[in-house]
Structures are given as structure tokens and as C-alpha cells.
Design brief:
The protein has 143 residues and is mainly alpha-helical. Helices cover 90% and strands 0% of the residues. It has helices at residues 3-31, 35-124, 134-142.
């Protein structure tokens, strides 16, 4: 039984109780002089009706309690499911981040190695102030 049905049944029970009370007052007003005797008869009949409907009302109340327990348990299951999904998503994001960091570290190592290689090549080149092939010109002039 969902909450909406429970609320509807609760309202119907409240409305029925109010109608019964008002009917009793109306009946008491109509009978006037025989009021006390009629009132006692109505009370007795009311007790009989109460005996008949009380077990139904108790079953209804028990059903409402069970429905509420079920709703609470369902809410807990939903909460656990949502929590698990969030945890899985966070773990995936963390793994993706770790993977991305590892990729970036690898690329940085490659860039640093390339920079070191370029520095080494630059160190092997003649100084920038000297003319290229200056040694060859000197050889030709001395010859």
C-alpha cells in the first residue's frame, strides 16, 4: 500500500467517524422526549457496530504500518543503490584521473628527453660567433 492509498483510507475513516457522530446527534435531536432511552439504544447498537468494524480497523491499521515499514525499507534500498552508483562514478573518475596523470608524466618525460637531446646537439655545434666553415677557409689560405 503506498502513501497515497494510506492517506485516502485515513481520510475516509475520519470522514466516516465524523458522519457517524453527526448522525448520532441528528438522531438524538429528532427523538426529543424519548431521548434518554433512544440514546441508550443507539449507544448499544453503536457498541455492536464497533465490535464488527474494530477488527477491520485494526487490520487496516496493521496494513498501514506494514506499508510504512515497506516504504522505509524501500527508501533505504534506494539510498544504498544511489550511494553505490556515486561511489562507482567517483572511482571511475579517480581511475581516469590517475590514467591521465600517468599519460601526462610520460609525455613530460619525453619532452624533457627531447630538450636534453637538443641541448646536447647545441653543445656540439660551433660557437655562434665563429663563421661556419671558417676552418676550411684558413686551410685554403694557408695552402
Amino acid at each position: 500500500m503506498d502513501n497515497q492509498n494510506f492517506e485516502r483510507i485515513k481520510k475516509e475513516a475520519r470522514d466516516s467517524g465524523e458522519k457517524i457522530y453527526l448522525a448520532g446527534l441528528g438522531a438524538l435531536g429528532k427523538i426529543g422526549s424519548e431521548g434518554k432511552k433512544a440514546f441508550e439504544r443507539l449507544v448499544e447498537e453503536g457498541r455492536e457496530v464497533h465490535k464488527e468494524i474494530e477488527p477491520k480497523a485494526e487490520r487496516l491499521a496493521e496494513s498501514a504500518k506494514e506499508a510504512a515499514k515497506g516504504a522505509v525499507e524501500e527508501g533505504r534500498r534506494a539510498e544504498r543503490w544511489i550511494s553505490e552508483k556515486i561511489t562507482q562514478a567517483v572511482e571511475k573518475m579517480a581511475f581516469a584521473k590517475e590514467s591521465r596523470v600517468a599519460e601526462l608524466e610520460k609525455r613530460l618525460d619525453q619532452a624533457l628527453a627531447e630538450i636534453a637531446s637538443l641541448k646536447a646537439a647545441k653543445a656540439q655545434e660551433p660557437e655562434s660567433g665563429a663563421e661556419p666553415n671558417a676552418g676550411e677557409k684558413n686551410k685554403e689560405e694557408n695552402a
